[in-house]
User: Fold this.
Amino acid sequence: MHTKFDTIIIGAGIVGVSTAIHLLKKEKTVLLLDRSGIATETSYGNSGIIESSYVLPFAPPHWSNIPKILMGKNAYARINYPDGLSQFPWMLNFYWQSRKAARIKSGAAMRPLVENAIAEHRAVMQEAGATHYISDHGRIKLHRSEDSFINGQYERDVMTQYGVPFEILSPDELQEIEPDIKPNFHRAIQLTDSKRYTNPAKAIQCAADWFVKQGGEYKQETVASLSQSDGGWQVNAHKCDNVVLCMGPWTNKLLKPFNHKFPLGVKRGYHKHYASAANIKHALVDADEGYLICPMEQGVRITTGAEFAMMNSDPQPMQIDLALLKAKELVEIGEAAEDKAWMGTRPCLPDSLPVIGQSHKHEGLWFNFGHGHCGITAGPASGRLIAQMITGETPFCDPNPYAPLRF
Ligand SMILES: Cc1cc2nc3c(=O)[nH]c(=O)nc-3n(C[C@H](O)[C@H](O)[C@H](O)COP(=O)(O)OP(=O)(O)OC[C@H]3O[C@@H](n4cnc5c(N)ncnc54)[C@H](O)[C@@H]3O)c2cc1C
Assistant:
C-alpha cells in the first residue's frame, strides 16, 4: 500500500481505465477509484462502436424534426419536461457552436483522438486478453430515402477528405452481406474499416483487471472530498501528487471549492436488449430515425439518441419504444430480454470536444472528461495524451483544442 501515489484517478469508465493504464506503463504509482465499479455507468451500455470514421460532431437536429422533438415523438432527441428545459441555455450554445465552420473545426480537432482509435483499442485489449470483444463488423448507416441520402453527402465529402473509407450499397448489395436486414431503406453506407465491441463493459473490465495485475491499485469508493495537501492532493484519505478527474458528467460536483465550472450538458441515452432471431453482424444506424441496432453478447441492443434532462430525474425511456417500432421495419427484433431499459449519461461540452489537461488554477489537478458521443472511441487515445502531459513528455498531438482554459 502506497502512502502517497503519483496519481489518483477518479472514475473508472473507459476514460479513467485508459488513463490509469497509460500512467502505469510509465512506471507511475496509480490508484483508480470509482463509486460503483468498473464501467458501470455510460461506459457500460453504449453502442460499442469504435468511431474512427468520426469527422464531424453529432449534428443538432434538422429544423423539420423540431416539432416532433418538442412533442417527444423522436428517438434522436427528446426533452424531458419540465426539468429538461433547464438544459435550454446549453442547447442554444450547442446550436451556436454547430455552425458549419465550427463543426469542421471541432471535427478536425477531434481527429488525433479518433483516427488511430482502432489501433489504440487493440493495443489495450491485446494486453488485457480481450480482443475477442472487438468485432470487425463495424457500422452501417441506413438512409430510408433519396432526400436523406443526399443530406448525408456533406459528411461523406468530409470523410473522403480525411481518407475514411466507405462503400455505398443498394438494398440488394447489402443483402449479400447482411441477409437478415429487411430491404426497407434506400441506401446503406458501410464504414468498411470500422469496428465495434460486442460487450464494451466486459472489455473494459478486462483492461482494468490487467491494470491491477500489473501493479495498479483499484478501490470501489465514492470520492466525497478533494483538497490540496502537503504540496499535492488528498482524495478522501489517499494522498497523491496529481489527481485526474475522469468522472464524465459528474465532474463539476467535485470542483465547486476550486472555482471551476464547466458547461456540461446532460444528454441521456437508453438501451434495451431483445432476443432477436435475426443474425445481424454490423451495428446499424437508422439515419432518419436517430437510433441504433447493435448486436451484442446480451442480444440485439437498441440504443437511443439524446434525452435532455436533469442528471437525477427519473428515467423516461419512451425513445426506446419509438426506436423499437422503427427498428422492426428493418430487422426481426423479437421479445425484450429484460423488463427495464438501461440509462446512461453522455458528458457533453457545447463545442463537442473533451476537456483534457491541467487546471490553469491549481497545479496537479488534471481533467479528462466530456467525450460526449464518442468516449468509447476516444478513451484510449485520451488516456495516452494525458499520461504524456502529466509525465512531461511531448504529447502525440496538440492538446490546446482540449484545454480547460477555453471555458
Ligand atoms: C446510448 C449511448 C450510446 C453510445 N454509443 C457510443 C458509441 O457507439 N461509441 C462511442 O465512442 N461512444 C458512445 N457513447 C458515449 C460513451 O459511452 C461515453 O462518452 C463514455 O462512456 C464516457 O466515458 P467516461 O469514462 O468519461 O464516463 P463514465 O463511463 O460515465 O464513467 C465515469 C465514472 O465516474 C464515476 N464517478 C462519478 N462520480 C464519482 C465520485 N464522486 N467518486 C467516485 N467515482 C465517481 C462513475 O461511477 C463512473 O463510473 C454512447 C453513449 C450512450 C449513452
In short: The first strand starts at residue 4 and ends at 10. The chain has two domains: 4-43+201-262+351-406, 60-87+139-193+265-348. Residues 375-390 form the longest helix (16 residues). The pocket of flavin-adenine dinucleotide is lined by residues 10-16, 33-36, 40-43, 46-49, 51, 222-223, 246-248, 250, 269, 271, 303, 344, 346-347, 369, 371-377 (CB under 6 Å).
